[in-house]
Amino acid sequence: MLARPVWRQSLALLAIGACTPAHETARQGRQVVIGMDASTLQSCAGIPTRIAQLDPRTQLYSYENKYERTGGLEITLPIIGGGIAAGGSGSYCHALVRIVDGKVAGVTYTGDNDEMIGREGVCGPIFRGCLREQQKTRAAHTAGAG
């Protein structure tokens, strides 16, 4: 009989479903840090690469992620006056975090940060630690309530 046991198929589907695409991690990471105080941000995302003081109340933190590999298949088609590249994925992301009165007020992703499937996927790892901390806190809170 060629049919695999149902539990193996279920386990495979569960493993695939547990993998969150990088662009979704980037989107969720942006949401989870909004409103966070600056010291909590640094404890889960790390020390920023650069900090700029914009005015007495506002700072700009810069976090960077650079990929050595860009993955995928990239094809460049020659065109007069340049060329066009198709496929491949981005190689770097700058996350600019605006801190106002000690709290995260906004996050902007810049750079060559799109993946072959999904926008801003290269930015996913920047706030992944913050997402994991939030998940641990939720799990501990849920376990304590039950």
Please tag this protein with its features.
35% helix, Beta-lactamase Inhibitory Protein, Chain:B, domain 1, 4-stranded antiparallel sheet, 30% strand, two-stranded antiparallel sheet, 146 residues, 4 helices, alpha+beta
Structural summary, described in words:
It is a single chain. The chain has a four-stranded antiparallel beta sheet, with no helix packed on it. It has a domain at 22-65 and 90-145: Beta-lactamase Inhibitory Protein, Chain:B, domain 1 (2-Layer Sandwich), CATH 3.30.1450. The protein has helices at 6-18, 22-33, 38-45, 128-145, and strands spanning 50-55, 58-66, 74-79, 82-87, 92-100, 103-110. It has four helices and six strands, in the order αααββββββα. The protein starts with 5 loop residues before the first helix and ends with a helix. With 146 residues, it is of the alpha+beta class. It is flat.
Task: Give the helices and strands, then pairings.
Blueprint: H1 6-18, H2 22-33, H3 38-45, E1 50-55, E2 58-66, E3 74-79, E4 82-87, E5 92-100, E6 103-110, H4 128-145
Antiparallel strand pairs: 1-2, 2-5, 3-4, 5-6
Helix pairs in contact: 2-4, 3-4
Poorly predicted runs of 5 or more residues: 6-17
- Total number of strands: 6
CATH architecture of the domain at 22-65 and 90-145: 2-Layer Sandwich
Order of adjacent strands in the largest pleated sheet: 1-2-5-6
Q: Helix/strand/pairing class, anyone? A: alpha+beta
Order of helices and strands: HHHEEEEEEH
Q: Which overall shape is indicated by the principal axes computed on the Cα atoms?
A: flat
What fraction, in percent, of the residue positions are helical?
25-40%
Output mean pLDDT: 76
Q: Separation of termini?
A: 44 Å
The CATH class assignment of the domain at 22-65 and 90-145 is: Alpha Beta
Radius of gyration: 20 Å
CATH topology category name of the domain at 22-65 and 90-145: Beta-lactamase Inhibitory Protein, Chain:B, domain 1
Number of helices: 4
Describe the biggest sheet? 4 strands, antiparallel
How large is the share of residues in beta strands? 25-35%
